[in-house]
Amino acid sequence: MGVKGLQYFMEKCCPETCVMVDFREMARQHVNSHQQGSSTTLPTLVVDGMACLRHWYSCQAWVYGGQWKEYMHCLKEFVGAFTTAGIRLVFFFDGVVEEEKRAEWVKRRLKVNEEVARVFHYLKCHGQQPGRGLFCLPSGLATFSRFALKSLGQETWCSVREADYEIASFALRHNCMGILGQDTDFIIYGSVPYLSVAQLRIDSMTTVLFSTDKLCHALQLQKSELPLLACLLGNDVVPEQRMQRLRSDALAAYRRKHPQSPPQGEKIYAVADFISSNKLSREGAHGVSCLPLTDREVLEKGIQYYLLPGQQPLWDISDTSPHSPVCLMKSYLSPDILQAAKEKHMRAECFMVYNVLYDGVVECSNTLEDREDAELTPQAIVYQPCRERIYGILLPTNTDRGGQAPTVREWFVFPGNPLKDPKVVSPLPLNHSVGKADLKALWFGKDSETKCLRISTFLAVFELDEFSVEHDRLDGSLMAVLCLVTYIAMQVVHLSLEDIDAYLSQAICVRYKSYTELLHTRFALAEAVFEWVAGGRQVSGMMCLAGPNQPSYRLWEGPGLSCGATGGSAGLSVCPRADPPGGRQQRLRMPLLHGAADALEHLRRPALPLKVPAGSLREATGGAAGGQCILGVPVPFSERAGPGNLQQAWPDHPVQTTDNTSREACG
Q1: Residues 252 and 144 in one domain
Q2: What is the pTM of this model?
């Protein structure tokens, strides 16, 4: 990300621009020089959350879906280190993908697809998790991290335009001590010191500061000339190949002037020499003005990108004001709804709602999906009916005046999607007895009727209206798990009962255990499994709706299924098996609904003294029988959905048991 080649240039070709700093000393100096007389305001460090994900996720296991409690422990240590040093943290996350950066976004997503393919190739060849060289972030980690940091009491923001711009603006406006990230755009902004998260040593509280002043000195440029340098080199707004001819001319001229110069870094030196050698006028830079009109317009747009509020461009360009996003859905919505959606989005309190309501464009980045496995439906497709009904709550499904109803454009990454164009999706009305769910009532209503409307609307999104009798039995998070797993079971043909059992157990079994307890859990079976979840790709999509991954340990292993010893919410491996026969949904629906609800109801009360005959019940939703347990407590399905009833619901899908799991493994 950022300016093409600039990070490498500073680290390898111009190391004097990289200065080792101590955060504690830097904070002390910042207070002395900027906050004299203030006894309450702490020095503030702005953190680019997207750039920090790889640093934060230092957990050893990742291919199964991620270690949530271990990840939370890492976040607590990160926050605690800066708190101890007397430094206030403010986190920013990307909330939108601006259309001028769409091409670069697509390019990166396709590149990550190739990285994911290499991961699956390694898994199939070696049967174990690859090393850190093939590391891919667990699916949905950026989304979950926002809520994780908020749960730790941290100030967290989600951008409504390019996050780099909002970070630099916030840092300048609030006189912050620095920006922690890994994006050379912050050097070009030059609002406050840019600090490297890749070089961060949390034990010593040190990192590398990339000095804008030293870079300008080395290149003999003014700070005001850095945006032009960035655009000529190429960035997210100006494609690198767009200015290739100008760079080639500049490089040829530089070599004629400096025939003995080393080749390393000469491209950046050449472009800097081109800028400093050509006088600037109101008509623009000599050389730049010779570019085709379209190239000049792209260059001007790129320079505008770096202009923070109150800053002036190097020369007069057509429009120096930052472009605010245009609300395409304004005519369909009330101002109150739009404002509430924007505020919730900025405070990182919701996900994707603002994007739908503002311009009708949503994105879903890469997930761990095997593009060579044609049997499993991509999670983006599995959840499309859900999303269509959610869009039907947020937007009108028809227009009273005979006009065209709004649509939503989806940029969802999944195997087989070349991302040439977005998929256009129409909102669907909910099919439930309560009638049209008014968004204003759902958001702002406070009476008991509104509460019932919220519950019925939530269930209608998954077409689980009959599940309303269960909502008082379970808390919100368990209710979400139950609805989502049931939805998956209805949608995914290849999902097995063991998949359902294992996911429900994962949602519960570590709920009452601390990170330290899990760290010292001993396992009867400790070998990693290599296959991604059968249906686990759907789980990754489900997590986007429900919330963070639950950590998964190898609590149970049976024929055809393995629960990852260090996996996450999707840490399962399922061997291929015959598809269930037709009519599966009708036979499975009600036993699954009520049986899963009973299991969750019992599991959330681990002290419940239940007596279960060995071998007679599927216990703990982990698939084990014969006296096995979760958290030391055997938990049966109810009579209406016991193992016999589940067997009747799916007669061609035999219930299999195992005695491989020890009581130690359960806890």
Answers
A1: no
A2: 0.80
